[in-house]
Amino acid sequence: MKRRTFIGLAGAASAGAFLAGAGPSVPDAAASPLWVKDVAGYLRSLVAVDEPSVDRIVIGDPGAAVAGIGTCWLPYRETCERAVRDGVSLLVVHEPTFYTHWDLDEKSPDLFGASPAGRRAYLEAVGKKKDWLLANELAVIRCHDVLDKVAGWGIPFAFGEALGFGAADIVRSRPYYNVYKVEPRPAAEVARAIAAKLAAFRQPGVAFYGDRDRIVGTVGVGTGCYSDPIEFMDLRPDLFIALDDIVRTWTQTVYARDTGHPLVVVNHGTSEEAGMRALAERLRAAFPGRKVVHYPQGCGYDWVTG
């Protein structure tokens, strides 16, 4: 496909192109090309989500042939550059490409309601990233709402498995939340076990709040921003796991210290890396013979100690 064609069609995609409904028939890798819209349609076929959804083609031509598929939690510029070097022409990501929840279609205040200097700086970065993606013909599909909701292997299930829990350990559950049984022991020991598992995802420790000695027999796991302990208190886990993007240090953490109810806080990217790895495996199975490369990220920041 010519670069001019890619750029000409990218506007429609960035304005909110998405493909819902029944999944496409998967073409044979040796017999016919795979289009960006085929991958978007397959992802949207996995589970029904509320509309409008951010799950769509964020940027790129829906009719472009896919040379290779990459998966990652966030499309950092460095990850995009690596994908292009690897011959990947489509990235399937979980979180935004352009710094806001609705990417190029953002309508909420967010950064657009920031100070003039802040807004200019971010919009300049948005423009540069958009231009780079178009120039390098790298399309981006977001798979957020689907991956959060799909049962069995989506974000909360994959995170639970990464922590050493299985389906048989689930004692209470509803969409986005699972409560797992564990061998009863002090909360501090459970937190240390969680931290040991998360070291493989670039997070060598966790934040702990509450009574370190309280005996814990169940652990509650949410999904991304659906991990606020306030929102799944009804599932009654002995220990909550929540994310740094949702917990406020004057609310949930103070409640944990005042009441003793144990709370472990982990990084957002750490909690969702396992789900992205599971998605890569699903794409390999759905499109056999196609190149699918997962770019592991895990914890979104570097740990610096004194």
Topology (SSEs and partners):
Elements: H1 3-14, H2 36-44, E1 57-59, E2 69-72, H3 77-85, E3 90-93, H4 116-135, E4 139-142, H5 145-149, H6 155-162, E5 170-174, E6 177-186, H7 187-198, E7 207-209, E8 215-221, E9 239-243, H8 252-259, E10 263-266, H9 268-286, E11 292-294
Parallel strand pairs: 2-3, 2-11, 3-4, 8-9, 9-10
Antiparallel strand pairs: 1-4, 5-6, 6-8, 7-10
Structure description:
With 306 residues, this protein is an alpha/beta fold. It has two domains: 168 residues, Udp-n-acetylmuramoylalanyl-d-glutamate--2,6- Diaminopimelate Ligase, Chain: A, domain 1 (3-Layer(aba) Sandwich); 112 residues, Udp-n-acetylmuramoylalanyl-d-glutamate--2,6- Diaminopimelate Ligase, Chain: A, domain 1. It is 33% helix and 17% strand. It has nine helices and eleven strands. The chain has a six-stranded mixed β-sheet. A hairpin with a 2-residue loop joins strand 5 and strand 6. Helix 6 packs across helix 9. The longest helix is centred in the middle third of the chain and has 20 residues. The termini are far apart.
Features:
306 residues; alpha/beta; Udp-n-acetylmuramoylalanyl-d-glutamate--2,6- Diaminopimelate Ligase, Chain: A, domain 1; five-stranded mixed β-sheet; disordered N terminus
